Automatic annotation (TrEMBL):
<keyword id="KW-0812">Transmembrane</keyword>
<feature type="transmembrane region" description="Helical">
    <location>
        <begin position="29"/>
        <end position="52"/>
    </location>
</feature>
<feature type="domain" description="YhdP central">
    <location>
        <begin position="29"/>
        <end position="1333"/>
    </location>
</feature>
<feature type="region of interest" description="Disordered">
    <location>
        <begin position="1354"/>
        <end position="1378"/>
    </location>
</feature>
<keyword id="KW-0472">Membrane</keyword>
<dbReference type="Pfam" id="PF13116">
    <property type="entry name" value="YhdP"/>
</dbReference>
<dbReference type="InterPro" id="IPR011836">
    <property type="entry name" value="YhdP"/>
</dbReference>
<dbReference type="InterPro" id="IPR025263">
    <property type="entry name" value="YhdP_central"/>
</dbReference>
<keyword id="KW-1133">Transmembrane helix</keyword>
<protein>
    <submittedName>
        <fullName>TIGR02099 family protein</fullName>
    </submittedName>
</protein>
């Protein structure tokens, strides 16, 4: 059968033999083979029976040989050899490798058994056919230098030397059981640990290798099993794992990763958890080449670096398949279930879709140069987290972190690779070949993707949906997104755009080093905008500009937010203007076109690019000047604006066909910024407005123009309809003044400035500019008369206008009285008639000048002199008004000077701070003070009583309520009056200076009669009637005088001045000290007055007189009248008398008493004022005690009681000077010892039951009453002993013991002829000036019986008791409370 198979030619070839083979060579070959066989047999027998048995006997030599060979001290307990088959066999017991200190063996094996391989003779090294040992302990360590020693034998440090590994895999069979390895690490973590090899089997063939390992470690709860079956490829080294081809399988349970990370140095920042794994993996040249792996982990934490996010999972279960895909290591997660580390341990696991990772094996630098990732569906966050924990390049890690990506990707395929240029190591100028090549591609369906650009040139987005396909050179993106939010830096004003819908396609590519972005029919919409755009954007190279072509169509847009979609390259001021100019309104069918460098928009030079914006607007709210600071004023918004917003390059225009400001109608308005790119932006506004004047003023008041004129809003009022042509030039970049050109067409309006008289029925045309106003046929009703302003011939640089008009006094009364201070209203009420004026109004570049001439012939004033003027008396006046512009540097921007008649001059000015000062001169120049009002008066005579009465009457007749003002004006007054009439007294040569600041008058007075300083505080809560305080060095009150009333014809009535009645409220509170007070003949000396006026009550807190004659303190009160009660006064007087004679001499023409000391107290009250008492209501009590005086003889026949109980007559209370007919019962110069008297006052009657006077010759007693209102008396005087004196004198003495002592001693002196045992009685009745004295007999009856019927008080006929010789002074009565 075989012969049939072998081809014939081969069969013939085999049948042939070499011709010379049977010759000598055959013999030689046979001989050689025999010799070798004999040599082998002899050697085998020699080794087996001679050499090998000798080894057992040479144990020490073997120990030294092995020690020398491996470099450690080797010892063994027993060595036995034998022969099995053709191989030598040996057994060792107690093999030890001793350390240098021999403290413990570094290797100790209880029993070793093996068979040597004949390869040992070839390699001259021990090779084993079989090797078995058990019960071993091996010590291994890594020293501080990083060198590893196993059983004291240093391992090689060359990573390319695989000698030991090759030797190990050259042994035919090795089996190890129960081996414990002790490991010590001195380099890093100072670790000392041990693990056990329960079983290790290694079977090697020529190229094939099988291994199985079962071991226990401290890092796992159970045994670890590893099996390997591989071959090394031809030409490779068995010990080099990179040459292996085969399979590896393993089974690991509960591997403690935390302990491993703690005890070993790993290239990880953190590794925690427990890991279980089981799998099988193919390897090819040391690289994985397919396999299946199951991994389960609990509380797994993996973190590559401290500043990078790590993977943290509570539970992980995954089944992985590994493949080799085109040289890349590929891992696919068939299942991937996990649970968050913070979730409950019993919670369900979450499953991820299958993912495939592929990467190139790490290079020599440890970095992966190629990476791929694909998944049918995956969350972007998971992709980013896994990628950050892969050993990618630092640049890629930075990109992933910066992007913060989220969302979902479907059908994702990412490919990334980086290759180093082969010429990068060459030092070629320019660095052309030094850059690495980076390839990147991606394709995926995006579902609500969000990411942040890794730099400003990259966009950011959220909720981005569509399909993307891109590589490092080009790409495309089909957008189909809802609720898209995109951020593109350096493109639009607002980089963040929120879109409800976005549809279209965007492509990009890199050509000639430039990136080009295209978008066609990209539709974008949200509540603010509905637009479609086409864009071609070329990103320029370094130091070269970008180039953009953009066309946008706005179907509809919100005008208030449309600025957000404008290109960022537009000037900053223009963008800010458009962002704030419109707050409402819509754009309909607008368009935008840009072509050129986007950073050059809006292309001030038309050759640099194209920029066109056309936005029809409807229902807009437009702020013409929105960029000014609000504190400078606001140009208010126009509403219901319809028009067009347009830009052509840098020219911005807003044309408004119609608009409103409240009810004001605006039309044909045009706003324009000629160049929005200019450094100094200027906005011009022109248009027409028609409407109600108050609403126009409201617009004006809020504007910067009015804010710079800070008084205009407060003071200007205009009413009526107005037609206005407006022209404004407004600087937007500076705070310069606004250019104003306003033309007003007035048809009968009313205009008023503050409280000044209004202009009514105002007609004509007025043009207002920032230079000066212009008037054309302006007429109005002003100050009750007509006002006309018309043009006049003008000179270059000066514009003139004529002014004519009239003023009526009735208007002044009706208007100014209601607006000016109430104190000035009486003077205005006294005016009557009318006055005419005419003049010129001139404007120039420095200001204005108004010169008015007044004709006051028909003007009259009924006020007292010097304000009095009779109707028809000629009088003229002239006033010059000047204004200056604020930029002329003048201190005053408004001033005036004038003169009326020969007596009056006026002057005033107002500075740039609106501080006003003005002056009036009467008979003297009108000199201005530093602030406020200054009045200068010089007059020979001034009747202040007439002025006070004039003001009082006018105040009573006027029903005008007082005008109150929060503004205070400083008032200064100087007066020089030779004759001043005040309080019916003449004050000569009076010099007065007064100033009023903060509601207080400071008066300095100097004249022969009065001198000092007085302060008058106007009414306030504490002093409702004001307060007069201060000090007078002297006050000499002159005597009253009666003015001479001239009588005219009988037909004329005599003008009698009836003085107004005083009330408590009309007298201010007083706190005055007078160093020297003189009242008529009385020298009262130092005086202190302190009173308080409040609520129609004047309280006399204290009136003190201190002089050589007496000291006194007076208190009391005056209650004003009310509708239900009459006014009432009360007074308490406490007088210490030092010299009664001098007191009486001060108040009478002759001295009637000399000396006399004592005390007078009086408590009295009455209806009426202290100055005009009603004597019939007088009530109270008076006590008098005098002693050690002398009665003088005087002639008082004409004396009478004067001003009883008045302030000036308190020292003369009840004074009587009677004509006596009692006879000579006293003598001249008779002294008295004491006088004691007590009077009870009731209804004007002074009743006394106790009046005694002690003389050296007699004693006198008196009873009865005195009728003060009627000035009569009914008294009985009894003299002990007999007295030859007139009873009238004694009665007068009794009635007025203070002052009337002179009446008592005036007629006769007591003589030594009177009989002490005799008694005389007299009745005194009748009037004070003509008293009737009736003598009585010893029985108390009239001596003349005919006079009995004439006696008015019969009770006086009763006999009086003789007074005690030593009458004690009457105790001082208690002062009654007022």
């Amino acid at each position: 059968m075989l012969q049939n198979i072998i081809p014939p030619r081969l069969k013939s070839l085999l049948a042939k033999r070499p011709q010379s083979f049977d010759g000598p060579w055959r013999k030689r070959a046979l001989f050689l083979c025999g010799f070798v066989l004999v040599l082998f047999v002899v050697g085998h027998l020699g080794i087996r029976f001679i050499v090998w048995p000798q080894i057992e006997k040479s144990k020490a030599s073997v120990e030294r040989l092995i020690s020398a060979r491996i470099g450690v001290d080797v010892a063994m307990d027993d060595l036995r050899v034998s022969w099995t088959g053709i191989r030598p066999e040996f057994e060792l017991d107690g093999l030890r490798f001793n350390g240098p200190d021999k403290s413990r063996p570094l290797l100790q094996i209880a029993k070793i058994r093996g068979e040597l391989s004949w390869n040992s003779f070839y390699h001259l090294a021990p090779y084993f056919h079989e090797l078995y040992f058990e019960g071993a302990q091996i010590y291994a360590e890594r020293d501080k230098k990083g060198l590893i020693n196993i059983a004291g034998i240093a391992t090689h440090g060359n990573s390319n030397d695989y000698g030991f590994e090759n030797w190990l895999l050259a042994q035919n069979e090795i089996e190890v059981n129960n081996v414990e390895i002790f490991w010590s690490d001195q380099l890093d973590k100072k670790l000392s640990t041990s693990f056990q090899i329960q079983n290790l089997v290694l079977i090697n063939g020529l190229r094939s290798h099988k291994a199985s390992l079962k071991t226990t470690t401290p890092w796992a709860n159970g045994p670890i099993q590893v099996e390997a079956n591989f071959v090394h490829h031809l030409g490779g080294q068995a010990g080099n794992w990179r040459d292996w081809i085969g399979n590896i399988s393993w089974d690991v349970a509960d591997l403690n990763l935390s302990q491993i990370a703690k005890e070993f140095t790993l290239p990880l920042h953190a590794l925690e958890g427990k890991l279980s794994s089981k799998g099988k993996l193919k390897i090819d040249n040391g690289q994985p080449d397919g396999g299946v792996v199951f991994i389960a982990a609990d509380n797994l934490v993996i973190q590559l670096a401290k500043n990078e996010d790590g993977i943290a999972l509570g539970r992980l279960e995954t089944n992985l398949t590994q493949e080799n895909d085109g040289g890349l290591i590929s891992v696919t997660t068939k299942t991937f279930a996990w649970r968050d580390i913070d979730s409950s341990k019993t919670g369900p696991l979450e499953n991820l879709s299958p993912m495939t990772f592929a990467w190139s094996p790490p290079g020599s630098d440890g970095e992966i140069k190629e990476f791929r990732f694909s998944s049918p569906k995956i969350l972007v966050e998971d992709v980013a987290l896994f990628a950050l924990n892969l050993p990618l390049s630092k640049k890629v890690h930075q990109w992933i972190k910066a992007s913060r990506a989220d969302g979902e990707l479907q059908n994702l395929d990412i490919r990334w690779s980086e290759s180093k240029s082969s010429l990068s190591s060459l030092n070629i100028p320019g660095g052309w070949f030094k850059s690495n090549k980076l390839d990147f591609s991606i394709s995926a369906k995006l579902v609500n993707l969000g990411f942040i650009g890794i730099d400003k040139s990259m966009p950011s987005a959220s909720n981005l949906s569509g399909f993307i396909s891109a590589d490092q050179n080009q790409g495309s993106f089909s957008i189909n997104s809802s609720d898209l939010e995109i951020e593109i830096n350096d493109l639009l004003v607002d980089p963040k755009i929120q879109l409800d819908r976005a549809n279209g396609q965007v492509t990009w590519s890199k050509k000639k080093g430039n990136w080009i972005v295209n978008a066609k029919q990209l539709a974008l919409s949200n509540p603010e905008i509905d637009t479609t755009l086409n864009i071609n954007y070329v990103i320029g190279a370094a130091k070269k500009p970008d180039f953009m072509t953009l066309d946008m169509d706005f179907a509809k847009a919100d005008l208030a937010t449309a600025y957000r979609y404008l290109p960022l390259g537009m000037g900053k001021e223009a963008r800010q203007y458009l962002s704030k100019a419109f707050t409402a309104g819509t754009i309909q069918k607008g368009s935008l076109h840009i072509k050129g460098d986007p950073n050059g928009v809006p292309f001030p030079n038309s050759g640099d690019g194209e920029f066109t914006l056309n936005l029809p607007i409807v229902g807009a709210t437009f702020y013409p000047v929105p960029l000014l600071p609000s504190n400078l004023g606001v140009w208010s918004a126009f509403s219901k604006v319809n028009g067009v917003l347009a830009m052509q390059n840098s020219n911005l225009k807003v044309d408004i066909s119609k608009a409103n400001f409240k009810d004001v109608q605006l039309s044909q308005f045009h706003a324009e910024i000629p160049n929005v790119s200019a450094k100094q932006l200027m906005l011009s506004v022109n248009g027409n407005a028609q409407g109600d004047a108050p609403q126009m003023l409201e617009y004006l008041f809020a504007s910067p123009f009015a804010k710079k004129q800070n008084k205009i809003e407060k003071n200007l009022r205009v009413s009526g309809p107005i037609n206005l042509d407006l022209g404004l030039k407004i600087p937007l970049s500076t705070n310069d003044d606004t250019g104003v050109d306003i033309k007003l067409d007035l048809t009968g309006n009313k205009a008023q400035w503050a409280n000044l008289p209004p202009l009514e029925n105002l007609k004509g045309k007025i043009r207002i500019t920032e230079v000066n106003p212009e008037f054309e046929n302006v007429t109005a009703t002003f100050l009750g008369g007509t006002l006309n302003i018309g043009s006049s011939p003008s000179a270059p640089g000066k514009q003139n206008f004529n002014i004519t008009g009239a003023i009526t006094a009735n208007f002044i009364k009706d208007y100014l009285v209601k607006t000016l201070n109430n104190e000035a209203s009486p003077i205005l009420e006294a005016m009557s008639g009318s006055a005419k004026y005419e003049g010129t109004l001139s404007f120039n570049k420095t200001g204005s000048e108004t010169n008015l001439k007044f004709d006051l012939r028909n003007w009259a004033s009924a006020a007292p002199m010097p304000a009095k003027k009779l109707m028809g008396t000629p009088m003229t006046g002239q006033v010059l008004f000047k204004t200056t512009t604020s930029n002329e540097g003048s201190a005053n921007r408004f001033s005036w000077t004038g003169k009326f008649g020969d007596l009056y001059t006026v002057q005033g000015d107002m500075n740039s701070n609106d501080e006003l000062r003005y002056a009036l001169g009467i008979g003297a120049p009108a000199n201005l003070s530093q602030t406020g009002f200054q009045m200068n008066l010089a007059s020979n005579e001034l009747d202040m009583d007439a002025w006070l009465d004039f003001f009082g009457k006018q105040k009573q007749q006027s029903n005008t309520p007082p005008i109150t003002s929060s503004e205070t004006t400083s008032v200064n007054l100087t007066a020089q009056v030779k004759k001043l009439i005040l309080f019916d007294r003449i004050w000569q040569d009076l010099n007065l200076s007064a100033s009023n600041k903060t509601n207080a008058w400071q008066l300095r007075i100097n004249s022969p009669l009065i001198a000092g300083q007085i302060q008058y505080q106007e009414s306030n809560n504490a002093n409702p009637s004001g307060l007069v305080s201060g000090n007078l060095s002297r006050l000499k009150v002159p005597d009253e005088f009666t003015p001479v009333i001239e009588t005219t014809k009988v037909a004329q009535k005599t003008n009698v001045v009836v003085k107004s009645k005083l009330s408590p409220n009309s007298i201010p509170s007083l706190d005055v000290t007078i160093d020297d007070l003189n009242w008529s003949k009385a020298h009262l000396g130092q005086t202190k007055l302190k009173t308080k006026t409040s609520n129609n009550l004047l309280t006399i807190e204290s009136i003190q007189f201190n002089n050589p004659q007496s000291n006194s303190i007076t208190t009391g009160q005056w209650i004003g009248a009310t509708p239900n009660q009459a006014e009432h006064s009360s007074m308490n007087i406490d007088l210490d008398v030092k010299d009664a004679g001098r007191i009486i001499a001060n108040w009478s023409s002759q001295k009637s008493v000399e000396g006399g000391q004592g005390k007078l107290t009086a408590n009295a009250e009455w209806d009426g004022s202290p100055f005009s008492p009603k004597y019939e209501t007088l009530a109270g009590k008076v006590n008098l005690n005098l002693e050690k005086g002398r009665l003088l003889e005087v002639d008082t026949s004409g004396a009478q009681i004067l001003d009883v109980l008045s302030l000036q007559s308190l020292f003369r209370f009840a004074t009587l000077d009677l004509q006596g007919s009692l006879g000579n019962i006293v003598s001249k110069g008779t002294p008295f010892n004491n006088i004691n008297a007590s009077f009870d006052l009731s209804n004007g009657l002074a009743q006394t039951k106790q009046f005694t006077m002690s003389l050296d010759q007699a004693r006198v007693a008196m009873v009865g009453q005195i009728n003060i209102p009627k000035q009569t008396q009914d008294l009985r005087v009894t003299i002990f002993p007999t007295i030859d004196a007139t009873a009238g004198s004694l009665a007068a003495f009794a009635i007025n013991p203070i002052v009337g002592l002179g009446a008592l001693v005036g007629q006769y002196l007591i003589t030594n002829q009177i009989n002490r045992n005799l008694q005389s009685d007299y009745l005194i009745q009748g009037s004070w000036d003509k008293p009737e004295v009736i003598p009585l007999d010893q029985k108390g009856q009239p001596i003349d019986n005919k006079t009995l019927n004439t006696i008015r008080s019969k009770d006086l006929l009763k006999e009086q008791s003789k007074p005690s010789p030593n009458n004690a002074p009457t105790p001082k009565p208690q002062t009654q409370a007022l």
